[in-house]
Amino acid sequence: MNKIFNWGIIGPGAIAHKFVEALKFLPQASLQGVVSTNLESAQRFARQYNIPIATNQLNELLDSDVDAVYIATPHHAHCQLTVDCLTNGKAVLCEKPLAVNHKQVSEIIEAAKTHNCFLMEALWTRFLPHIEKLIEQVNTDTFGKIAFIDSNFAFKTEYPPGHRYNNPALAGGSLLDIGIYPIFLCYLLLGKPTQIKADALLNEQGVDRTLQALLKFKDDARANIFSSFHFNGGAKAHIYSCTGCAIHISDKFNTPSNMILENAKGEQKNIEIPFDGNGFNYQIDEVHRCLVQKKLQSNMWSWQNSLDLVDIMDQVRANISLKYPFE
Amino acid sequence: MNKIFNWGIIGPGAIAHKFVEALKFLPQASLQGVVSTNLESAQRFARQYNIPIATNQLNELLDSDVDAVYIATPHHAHCQLTVDCLTNGKAVLCEKPLAVNHKQVSEIIEAAKTHNCFLMEALWTRFLPHIEKLIEQVNTDTFGKIAFIDSNFAFKTEYPPGHRYNNPALAGGSLLDIGIYPIFLCYLLLGKPTQIKADALLNEQGVDRTLQALLKFKDDARANIFSSFHFNGGAKAHIYSCTGCAIHISDKFNTPSNMILENAKGEQKNIEIPFDGNGFNYQIDEVHRCLVQKKLQSNMWSWQNSLDLVDIMDQVRANISLKYPFE
């Protein structure tokens, strides 16, 4: 690919730094602009990475010649910003969750259709080599049908009450931030659940500090998941099959990782899976590939996938009676 | 202790062999009789271990000078046999679950009271050194309050439809056989749950092949458990605290084991916990201690503990609408 892709970033927070780090591994990418509601924050970010445009005016970025925008703001702002970018003809890679509920995700997808613009949820895990390897492994005849997935993502935070993790107005809580990973994994391997039973420990602001869910799928497959900001539970994925085999990804299943294959006799084999960059680059590479091919969505993580994922999270929230104040 | 304790066994199956193996580590125990509905099976067992009485007539054992009876039959027979033994003045160590529901366990306890006889559920795990160590560790100031327990017991079986694991008439299913272990662990560390949400995959006979449950306890503590005869999920226990510490028992938490202590920085330390015999001997030792002290129940696993445990399992079953045909 000889084409240079000009990128803009909205929301120069922690995740945006990771994105810029990833761009370094993609010579066809050029970072052209950064937008923040806080001008100083945009300027600081721009200085650090030599970015020509630093602004608190979204139009300045939208009027520039950037091809694609990476949206890295807190969740509640994804919908409006993504629609604004799409309406102005910019391709969008938007941090997960694409938006906070099914209605918002539908609205975003409508905007992408209407304006004929590429749109993808930045579910970076989907594009990592070990996830590709996982899909390959669960599809072997030896592995057989998946019987059970046991997955979770939990770590202890000491963030103050106003932090976005704790703030219902910013769609805080563990579900949308980290619970999304085990849910994504179950959906990727088993499709949409046919039944969800969930429970949650809410924080003082009313969002889920700890979330637990039992998921039922067709063909007798089941899953147990939990997420929490309350304790250090790691990020594990255990996939068990009806033939007695298993796959274990214990070392942060959502990031570049190894995996342990276990056969029906209980014999284990560790597989190291090499990866480039910081892992974030794989999803950006997919955006580039899609743009070259003039595709509006990725086959690997389609609009329908984003709709399904948010739909599952909506169902989980209905189960624990969690509504964000703006809903 | 100079006193020799004469033991009888009812139900010479797999678990009874384990019991006899354990008796070898207890010189104060003598095995005097074995009862089976199948006389040949009793005689074969008696020949193997040089046991004087081998019979299919329970009275023969009850009329002998055995001090204590170990009941190792399938679950559905525990209640009647235990009551028969207690009524005839024999101390009873009965395999877990003590009986299949709260009503039966209450009946057994009443019989122990009425006939002034020792009674204990053979929840052998309770008496193992690593469980004592676990209790000690979770009670340190450093560990702090328990936030979450993630525990399970699952293995794949290929038993035929008539096997007791699959048979509702024998109170089959994963809950009473192996789900009892993670439930016991949660109860031991957190007391009785204040809320249970469960789901189950039933087999063709209508008992739980896979069981999943979310447990809620006072003080914001939570637990996720599952049990299954459907896949090889191992027997794990992860205990997470509000201070960021954790204890991991990954190598069969219900049997003699090691444990990994994790501090709030994520640093891990492996602790090997030495044990005698095959582990089963600890519970028998407790019976001997109680008999010497003329106690009717153990302080370590009391009648109330057995009542609470079966009450939790009754609640789980109510949640998944599972009734055994004899209920």
TrEMBL record, chains A, B:
SUPFAM superfamilies hit by this protein: Glyceraldehyde-3-phosphate dehydrogenase-like, C-terminal domain, NAD(P)-binding Rossmann-fold domains
UniProt entry keywords in alphabetical sequence: Oxidoreductase
A Pfam match: GFO_IDH_MocA
GO molecular function, one term: nucleotide binding
InterPro entries noted in UniProt: Gfo/Idh/MocA-like_OxRdtase_N, Gfo/Idh/MocA_domain, GFO_IDH_MocA-like_dom, NAD(P)-bd_dom_sf
Domain (GFO/IDH/MocA-like oxidoreductase): residue spans on this chain: 133-238
Listed transmembrane segments: none
Keyword Metal-binding in record: no
Keyword Oxidoreductase: yes
Superkingdom field: Bacteria
Domain called Gfo/Idh/MocA-like oxidoreductase N-terminal: residue spans: 5-121
Family membership noted in the UniProt record: Belongs to the Gfo/Idh/MocA family.
Full protein name: Gfo/Idh/MocA family oxidoreductase
Organism placement in taxonomy: Bacteria, Pseudomonadati, Pseudomonadota, Gammaproteobacteria, Oceanospirillales
